TrEMBL record:
Upper taxonomic lineage: Bacteria, Bacillati, Bacillota, Negativicutes, Acidaminococcales
Name of the featured protein: tRNA-2-methylthio-N(6)-dimethylallyladenosine synthase
Radical SAM core domain mapped to chain residues: 143-373
Pfam families: Radical_SAM, TRAM, UPF0004
Catalysis: reaction(s): N(6)-dimethylallyladenosine(37) in tRNA + (sulfur carrier)-SH + AH2 + 2 S-adenosyl-L-methionine = 2-methylsulfanyl-N(6)-dimethylallyladenosine(37) in tRNA + (sulfur carrier)-H + 5'-deoxyadenosine + L-methionine + A + S-adenosyl-L-homocysteine + 2 H(+)
Presence of the UniProt keyword Lipid metabolism in the record: no
Annotated ranges, domain MTTase N-terminal: 4-120
Cofactor: how bound: Binds 2 [4Fe-4S] clusters. One cluster is coordinated with 3 cysteines and an exchangeable S-adenosyl-L-methionine.
Name of the gene: miaB
Organism of derivation: Phascolarctobacterium faecium
Sequence ranges assigned to domain TRAM in this UniProt record: 376-441
Family: Belongs to the methylthiotransferase family. MiaB subfamily.
NCBIfam families: miaB-methiolase, MiaB/RimO family radical SAM methylthiotransferase
Needed cofactors: [4Fe-4S] cluster
Keywords: 4Fe-4S, Cytoplasm, Iron, Iron-sulfur, Metal-binding, S-adenosyl-L-methionine, Transferase, tRNA processing
Record has RNA-binding as a keyword: no
Length: 441
């Protein structure tokens, strides 16, 4: 008998990518093999995101498409997991009867049992309670990358920024124990993984739910000591909770990368207040200054939202000026998307789409100039790059990332490189999105 197969269609953030690896691990534990094409898979998991309306629309299109796919493959099991499953629950099944199982965000660990029960026709179809307290990882992951591993350290978020749906769909903060995290890192090291990204919606509050403060810096230092760990990254940080102890840990620990991703969202104090962010632009600039003091070579990246309700031209200019003043290495820029159920969705003075688009363009232009400037400074320098493989199916050029998370391309020139190799690359040219150079030594 040929083995049953599965496919995972993943959307959204790194946490979702990590959850998808856990779904794949559990499916393999149940004896399923990865399908080459989701149309033919016996189990399809759609792992969803609802952070912005655009993501939701795309995913609803895919769920619609699965109706036809399933009609051609009787017996196919369609699981909808993740943030939309959490948000919309049973309503999704009513509207899209092709869905067999709905798995909310707090049930990833229990997926194996949920699926087994469903197959034995005993189980429920909707699992979206957020009352599950389980945060310790069990079982296997089938990781996408061969050298870089996602390591979730906490789930959920307590922040309630007024634009954001995440606290409603991911529940309150639950941290994994340091032992459970260290075990997973050790196991991944034994399989050859070199780079570890510690994940959480707000990593700086790691461990607060255990009643202890400043645990994140301790966790970073602990992971730094695990033999075989070459690089440590983490995301996402909250400017309000990012303190000196973490910056010091980055400065002092050999393996923690010099890349700070600290979303500021808006440069206007009025908008930051309306967003419930808990800091001012002045505090944010102090944080940037502290980072530059301890880690002068650090890359600083950020997330920015334009068109939050009530954002005037003057507020937007505050954002634009902050971008110019800080000189970010990169920024993820978003148009504010109304998420029903969040406080901002009910705010008056929603900004018209045309204005939001125009502001986004201006912001991206300013950021592109800054990204290029930050990259140009690196021309002539020799940087440590972790090799990720051939670039764009072109075996003559390899790509990888610097410790500051910049993409670098270099010609192979007859040399042999392996995935995860540390390569010294002398930078010759800088572009907005990448650097090019030659391997030296
Ligand atoms: N609209 C637009 N962007 C959003 N983000 C979160 N919620 C929204 C929303 N409603 C952005 C924030 C966050 C990133 C992951 O997504 O910038 O940092
Ligand atoms: Fe999307 Fe947020 Fe859920 Fe990640 S946590 S999948 S960004 S809604």
């Amino acid at each position: 008998m040929t083995a049953k197969t599965y496919a995972i269609l993943n959307y959204g953030c790194q946490m979702n990518e990590s959850d998808a690896e856990h779904y794949a691990g559990q499916l393999q534990e149940l004896g399923y093999k990865a399908a080459e094409d989701f149309h033919d898979a016996d189990v399809v998991v759609v792992n969803t995101c609802c952070v912005r309306e655009s993501a939701e629309k795309r995913i609803l299109g895919k769920i619609g498409e699965l109706k036809g796919v399933k009609a051609n493959h009787p017996g196919q099991i369609v699981c909808v997991a993740g943030c939309m499953a959490q948000k919309d629950g049973g309503k999704l099944i009513k509207k899209h009867p092709q869905i067999d199982l709905l798995i909310g965000t707090a049930h990833v660990n229990g997926f194996k049992e949920i699926l087994a029960e469903y197959l034995s026709e005993k189980g429920e179809r909707v699992y979206n309670s957020l009352e599950v307290k389980e945060s310790e990882f069990e079982g296997e992951r089938i990781r996408q990358s061969g050298f870089s591993a996602w390591i979730p350290i906490m789930y959920g978020c307590n922040n309630f920024c007024t634009y954001c749906i995440v606290p409603y769909v991911r529940g309150r903060e639950r941290s994994r124990s340091i032992e459970n995290i260290v075990d997973e890192v050790r196991q991944a090291v034994a399989k050859g993984y070199k780079e570890f990204t510690l994940l959480g919606q707000n990593v700086n509050s790691y461990g607060k739910d255990f009643g202890v403060k400043d645990q994140f810096a301790k966790l970073l230092r602990r992971v730094n000591e695990i033999p075989g760990v070459e690089r440590i990254r983490y995301m996402t940080s909250h400017p309000r909770d990012m303190h000196e102890d973490v910056i010091k840990a980055v400065a002092e620990c050999e393996h923690i990368c010099e890349n700070f991703h600290i979303p500021f969202q808006s440069g206007s104090n009025k908008i930051l207040k309306a967003m419930n962010r808990g800091y001012t632009r002045e505090k944010y600039l102090e944080l940037v200054a502290m980072i530059r003091r301890y880690v002068p070579e650090a890359a600083i990246t950020t997330d920015i939202i334009v068109g939050f309700p009530g954002e005037t031209e003057a507020d937007f200019n505050d954002t634009l000026n902050l971008v110019k003043e800080v000189g970010f290495d990169a920024a993820f820029t978003f148009i504010y998307s109304k998420r029903s159920g969040t406080p901002a969705a009910a705010m008056e003075e929603q900004v018209p789409l045309e204005i939001k688009k125009a502001r986004l363009n201006l912001l991206m232009e300013a950021q592109n100039i800054s990204s290029l400037q930050r990259n140009e400074v690196l021309v002539g320098k020799t940087l440590e790059v972790l090799a990720e493989g051939p670039s764009n199916n072109n075996n003559k050029v390899w790509s990888g990332r610097t410790r500051t998370n910049k993409l670098v391309l270099w010609p192979v020139e007859g040399r042999d490189f392996e995935l995860g190799d540390k390569v010294q690359v002398q930078i010759e040219t800088a572009q907005t999105w990448l650097l090019k150079g030659k391997a030296v030594e």
